[in-house]
């Protein structure tokens, strides 16, 4: 857990790269009263970020192309630089920032950490940077995002209760670690400390494998007749949501962590080959047990995923209520739930295609299900 207070964040904070993440960081920091400067080589990305209130747009000295949307070359020296550029340029922008502002803490938020760290260390080896200068760099990664990119999709609440990894390496200055922890905490995130290698191995499994799996499943749907797709339920939606992600970003993420991901994919391939073999002869002795084992192993892995806010996994009971597809219905059900004194642990809405009704799924503590079902039924709601 972070111990750094807001004072540990040197201000102003300059965000370099005002896409989805950079603009969301700007919005979250502005919401906490932090002074934020913005820069992006794309004039439109910069102007949108500025216009939605993520900070003050600036132009950088020596940026010959000039972003054009800044309010003149900035003379303010940033106390902290957040590099929120795409992964394949994040290292270069981090080194450039360390050189430009010799006192500033420089952090990046790229999805893969070892490659950015390598770029910073290479600059030291080439004599471009002193080891002391490089110690002002700290790699970080907020584990929050969206399937969409660009500043228009940005949200100041994106990081609320999300994990934010801070890679404290032996050669990272304590003030840089403290600044990163303070920034993450100011956005509402929860700090997790690990080194870059441990981070990259972790995200290969918890982020990069799910992306590949979602893309592989969703790619099967390209030629599927509309009549079949009309039957789709939450299973398909849950397993393919992130298949809508930006290909340009994911090319860089997967290529940047390829070695670690390939190791995991070999394991997946072995399991897949075994499943295919089993299903080719489903009546062979032991085949049913093999299938049951696969599903049970999935149960065991799924049960280990922590709940919201990093809480231990918890099974909630779900109360499903049929609501008309008209304004105010969800609010009315939630009001009735509150009146019954039952806390909503989670909520989702499901629409049956071709029907004017929706299914509101209210997750509650298992011991409260009967009570809520009775209370809602008594108030005239249809609980299924
Ligand atoms: N999209 C996601 O869900 C998450 C992304 N990240 C990381 O955040 C970073 C930004 O990703 P997004 O905001 O999603 O991408 P994005 O595509 O929405 O924004 C990237 C921005 O960087 C700008 N840019 C390009 N070259 C630049 C340079 N040399 N200097 C400064 N800015 C430059 C682009 O013009 C663009 O506005 C990436 O490193 C990504 O790995 C981290 C967590 C989640
Ligand atoms: O939408 C989701 O569930 C994600 O997992 C988004 C995401 C994408 C890239 C990252 O580096 C971190 C998080």
TrEMBL record:
Its EC number is 1.3.1.12. It catalyses: prephenate + NAD(+) = 3-(4-hydroxyphenyl)pyruvate + CO2 + NADH. InterPro entries: 6-PGluconate_DH-like_C_sf (IPR008927), ACT-like_dom_sf (IPR045865), ACT_dom (IPR002912), NAD(P)-bd_dom_sf (IPR036291), PDH_C (IPR046825), PDH_N (IPR046826), Preph/Arog_dehydrog (IPR050812), Prephen_DH (IPR003099). It holds the Pfam family PDH_C. Residues 318-384 form the ACT domain. It is an enzyme of class 1 (oxidoreductase). Pathway: Amino-acid biosynthesis; L-tyrosine biosynthesis; (4-hydroxyphenyl)pyruvate from prephenate (NAD(+) route): step 1/1. Gene3D superfamilies: 3.30.70.260, 6-phosphogluconate dehydrogenase C-terminal like domain, NAD(P)-binding Rossmann-like Domain. The keyword Oxidoreductase applies. Residues 11-309 form the Prephenate/arogenate dehydrogenase domain. Keywords: Amino-acid biosynthesis, Aromatic amino acid biosynthesis, NAD, Oxidoreductase, Tyrosine biosynthesis. The keyword Amino-acid biosynthesis applies. GO terms for molecular function: prephenate dehydrogenase (NAD+) activity. Belongs to the prephenate/arogenate dehydrogenase family. This is Prephenate dehydrogenase. It comes from Micrococcus lylae.
């Amino acid at each position: 857990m972070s111990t750094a207070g807001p004072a540990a964040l040197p201000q102003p904070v300059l965000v370099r790269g005002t896409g989805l993440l950079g603009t969301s960081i700007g919005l979250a920091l502005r919401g906490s009263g932090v002074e934020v400067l913005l820069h992006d080589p794309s004039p439109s990305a910069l102007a949108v970020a500025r216009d939605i209130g993520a900070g003050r747009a600036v132009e950088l000295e020596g940026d010959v192309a000039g972003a054009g949307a800044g309010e003149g070359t900035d003379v303010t020296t940033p106390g902290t630089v957040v590099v929120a550029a795409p992964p394949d340029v994040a290292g270069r922008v981090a080194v450039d920032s360390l050189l430009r502002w010799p006192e500033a803490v420089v952090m990046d938020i790229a999805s893969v950490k070892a490659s950015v760290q390598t770029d910073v260390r290479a600059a030291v080896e080439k004599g471009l940077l002193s080891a002391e200068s490089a110690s002002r760099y700290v790699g970080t990664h907020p584990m929050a995002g969206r399937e969409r990119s660009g500043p228009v999709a940005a949200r100041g609440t994106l990081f609320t209760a999300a994990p934010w990894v801070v890679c404290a390496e032996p050669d990272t200055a304590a003030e840089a670690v403290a600044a990163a922890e303070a920034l993450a905490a100011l956005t509402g995130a929860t700090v997790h400390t690990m080194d870059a290698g441990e981070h990259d191995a972790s995200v290969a499994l918890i982020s990069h494998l799910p992306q590949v799996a979602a893309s592989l499943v969703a790619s099967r749907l390209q030629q599927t007749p509309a009549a079949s797709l009309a039957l789709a339920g939450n299973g398909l939606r849950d397993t393919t949501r992130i298949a809508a992600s930006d290909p340009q970003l994911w090319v860089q993420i997967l290529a940047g962590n390829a070695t670690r991901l390939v190791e995991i994919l070999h394991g997946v391939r072995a399991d897949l080959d075994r499943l295919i073999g089993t299903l080719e002869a489903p009546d062979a002795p032991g085949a049913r047990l093999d299938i049951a084992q696969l599903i049970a192993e999935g149960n065991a892995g799924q049960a280990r995923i922590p709940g919201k806010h990093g809480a231990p996994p918890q099974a909630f009971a779900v109360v499903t209520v049929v609501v008309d597809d008209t304004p105010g219905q969800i609010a009315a059900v939630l009001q009735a739930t509150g009146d019954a004194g039952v806390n909503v642990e989670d909520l989702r809405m499901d629409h049956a295609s071709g029907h004017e009704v929706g299914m509101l799924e209210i997750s509650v503590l298992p011991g409260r299900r009967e009570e809520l079902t009775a209370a809602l039924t008594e108030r005239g709601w249809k609980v299924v």
